[in-house]
Amino acid sequence: MASKQVTLKEVGEKAGISAMAVSMALRNHPRIAEKTRRRVQALAARLGYVRNPAFARIGSIRGARPREMMPMALVRHANPTSVFYHPSYMNSLAREAARFGYRLQFFRSEEEAGNGRRLGEILYHRGIEAVVLGPIFHQAFIDTFPFQQFSVVACEAGHFQPPCHLVMSDILLSMEQAVRLCLERGYRRIALAEHEEPMVPVDALHRQAGRLAARHVAEQSGAAWAEGMFPTTRTDAFHAWLGDFRPDVVIGQTAFFYWELKRKWKVPREVAFVTLRLGRDHAEPELSGFMENHMRTGALAIKLLDGEVRDFERGTPEVVSRILVEMDWKEGRTLPVRAKKRTVSGLKPVARAG
């Protein structure tokens, strides 16, 4: 026979405080003294108390009604191009959260000064302990959000790194793989075009490492290599750069460079093209490139967050980790085989988009 689940009330009776105070202590709420929080957390662990969202998915052994699902927040930040605004993505994440016993609720942050603090108060009063953060584009949110009260995992890279674990697409691997695919298909003059961004993104170091790895692979194979960064308002600079280098393939950070390339070049007859970031919901059917699997990164973020909730982990972890998720390759018509396929040393089979 299954053992009885320890309740908040029973933990409170042992600790000499109310069930509500126990709940607040387990969430590291600042209204509870730090000494009391540590004592209650140790007592709860010793008694075997588990805040287990999985119980929301099942009824009792004798068929009682399922318990209410535990709330989880997905915080979307102000960015009109973010996938976090797409209904299909949010619905898919809600289903994934339900598999772990959570009821996903959506919140939008405009990120003005103080907004993080107000949002924290709203989440607390709604009984929400688990928070998934979308890409963050303003430091003000990080400065004011009460991370110490919640279990938090961030999903996808914005302009600022929150003080929590971050799950994001592996752009470094995709950059290296793109060059290897170009070489394998017979291309010998490879150009990498990226956006000149007004702010340094969270994945800037990963991009820099990917750039170095891609250049190394190209040069080791004897291919000509060029790289450049261009503001979207200076397309003339991009076209002048292409005219000087005369590539046979362009690796573009986004589809923006594809549409610019098509203005003056025949793709792929004159110049082939591969993109490093294809959105699953907005992919042009003819484009070849790497597709960000936001559902995969979101599902992994929820799984990590579930582990934090079960282990009563609140606030900033001692070691903040970045988890990189491999992107899928989408075969289109813009990177045809130009010559007999070559075997390129170290080429890892790319994950295909489903």
Return the CATH architecture of the domain at 171-292: 3-Layer(aba) Sandwich
Largest sheet: 6 strands, parallel
CATH superfamily of the domain at 171-292: Response regulator
Number of strands: 12
Uncertain ranges: 56-66
> Which structural category do the helix and sheet elements fall into?
alpha/beta
Write the CATH fold name of the domain at 171-292: Rossmann fold
Give the helices and strands, then pairings.
Layout: H1 8-15, H2 19-26, H3 34-47, E1 70-77, H4 87-99, E2 102-109, H5 115-125, E3 130-133, H6 139-144, E4 151-155, E5 165-169, H7 171-184, E6 189-195, H8 204-220, E7 224-230, H9 235-245, E8 249-252, H10 256-264, E9 272-279, E10 289-292, H11 294-310, E11 322-325, E12 328-330
Parallel strand pairs: 1-2, 1-3, 3-4, 4-5, 5-11, 6-7, 6-8, 8-9, 9-10
Antiparallel strand pairs: 10-12
Helix pairs in contact: 1-2, 1-3, 2-3, 4-11, 7-8
Question: Would you mind describing this structure in some detail?
Answer:
The chain has 354 residues and is α/β, with parallel strands linked by helices. Among the domains are: 8-50, no CATH class; 171-292, Response regulator (Rossmann fold). The protein contains eleven helices and twelve strands. Strand 3 (130-133), helix 6 and strand 4 form a beta-alpha-beta unit. Helix 2 (19-26) packs across helix 3 (34-47) and helix 4 (87-99) packs parallel to helix 11 (294-310). The longest helix has 17 residues, at 204-220. The protein is elongated and about 75 Å long. The two termini are 43 Å apart. The model is unreliable at 56-66 (pLDDT under 50).
